[in-house]
Amino acid sequence: MRAWVVRAGENGEREKAALEEGILIVGWLELGDLAGTAARDDIKAAVAAAYPDEGPYTVGNWSGQLFRFVHEMEPGDLVALPLKSLLVAVGRVSGGYEYRSGDADGIRHVRRVEWLAKDIDRQSIQSDLQDSMGSLLTVFELSRFGAAERVAALADGKPDPGRPDADEFAATLTEPTKLYEEVRRWSAAEPLTLSVRDFLAVWGVKRRHPAVIEQIQNDLDGRGLVTIPPFTEGSLETQITVVAGGAEPDEAGTSAVTRLTGTTSPSAVVQSAADAAGHMADDDSQARTVAYRVSNLDSAGRIPECVRVGDDLRTAMTLMVLRDYSQLPVLDAAGRLRGVVSWESIGRAHMADPAADLAAATVRAQEADRSDDLLDWIGTIQKSGYVLVRDHDHKVCGLITDSDLTVQFGTRVRPFVLVEEIEQRLRRVVDRCIPIDRVRVAVTPRRARRVNSATDLTFGEYGFVLKEADNWAALGWVIDQRHFLAALEECRNFRNDLMHFSPDPVTDDQLRPAQGLLELLRSMDPRS
Q: What is the mean pLDDT of each run of 10 residues along the chain (528 residues)?
């Protein structure tokens, strides 16, 4: 037995018919009969034909919901219907998919249901199950936290027994729930827009790596939310828009993503997000991994100073001297790149003609797309000294120089060097002060056989070794053991996080605890 939620319209417009007629209803009025579909691809083709203005993400999302409604739900499954009255109705699916071709009131795609209870107080449902029911999707399964058994208990008039592992439950979805509520409050003309940094903070994280991305993406999918562009792209300061990508079409037959372009005067951020939506894949192939993109560098998102076609060459030269630039992009009136002027190109133009103008000194530019893999461009940047960055409209949106690479990779290497020195100093002091037999006693018996010196210890095992009173005393350090071990554990967690690939740099605040531990080790053992 499975448990589902089938909402009755964004504003509850189908609630009365659903409860009075004993049916589950979904929208998508432009679609015809889906009874003849056998696979998700069949439904996807029908959705794409009925809603030709929608992008691949929306088509894929809607197709998934409709496939679940038509094919995956089975008689005997339980279904919950959250009502606008803050009550919840619970029923048991009693029939297969039906299409009512003659209904003009939005009641065409239906399934029969036997309502077991229509007046369950939402406050009697524990917060984690309430949150699971709060998705913006029309059709979705309640699959976590023992949901099916709990919905069955509610249908029998019993209280929600709570999730099976309630003792271990941490309210991880509290903040994402607030995000969901905010998305509902913002308008289609000005949807919720925030930086990647602030978006990650909703989940209490500061950097993107695979485990974090999987958790966040699962939460977004469960709520029918999508970020445009994907939150995996760009730097931490990149602005992303959060919309109800899975919500069914409105009365005009358009999705929330498409409505971004339908406002009278959308903001620049909204328009950019809407344009980017056209390049998104559907929910089966949307990018969910982290790569080191050109856009991950801050300078790739800062529009560089430039000159325009027709400007005087002296304008370019003056700006280059004042700003200490080696080159300047040359743009046309639409903001598209026409080339670049550099000291080398100016020199060559003047050698050929002392009266050369800007056009004569303009040469072809190195130009990367913001979604390109940065590693593919490192050689070009090192050779030419720069690469200009374009957006999906082929407009210049940034400039990366060799100095940007130096700073970026210097920032990324620094934490590894710091942690390596901490490990080296721990290794030397343990080898010098603590006999190897006492070191082996501090680790697990299985590991002890492999430990012949401190070099064989993992970072975490240093804490086990130095926690022992005799081993700590052997160091002869006049510092607080408890605080030192706490700092060592904090550094271990930092090191583990560092080992997960992420395109996001480590900030000075994140680095400070490890830096403090290193300074303490240097003070205690200056000979190392």
A: 89 89 91 89 92 86 92 94 91 93 80 93 83 83 85 89 57 62 73 86 85 86 83 83 78 70 44 44 46 82 90 95 91 88 94 94 91 88 89 83 84 88 94 94 89 92 94 94 95 88 81 92 80
Contact 116, 150 (CB under 8 A): no
Residues 263/188, Cβ–Cβ less than 8 Å:
yes
Token pair, residue 106, equals 């939005």
- Residue ending a domain, among 118, 143, 166, is 166
SS3 label, residue 428:
helix
* Parent domain of 369: 296-394
The domain spanning residue 86 has which CATH number?
A: 3.10.590
From CA 366, how far away is CA 212, in angstroms rounded? 34
Q: How far is CA 418 from the centre of its chain?
A: 28
| 201/97 same-domain check | no
- Whole-model pTM above 0.70? no
- Residues 2 and 76: beta-carbon distance below 8 Å: no
Q: Are residues 160 and 229 in the same domain?
A: no
Q: Which two tokens stand for residue 173?
A: 């979805």
Structure token digits, residue 524:
């205690």
The pLDDT, as a whole number, for residue 517 is 94
What is the phi-psi region of residue 76: left when phi exceeds 0, alpha when psi lies from -120 to 50, beta otherwise?
A: left
Residues 152 and 180 in one domain: no
Read off the DSSP letter of residue 506.
Answer: P
Report the C-alpha gap between 288 and 325 in whole angstroms.
Answer: 37
Largest CA distance in the chain: 92
CATH of the domain at 319: 3.10.580.10
CB atoms within 10 A of CB 450: 10
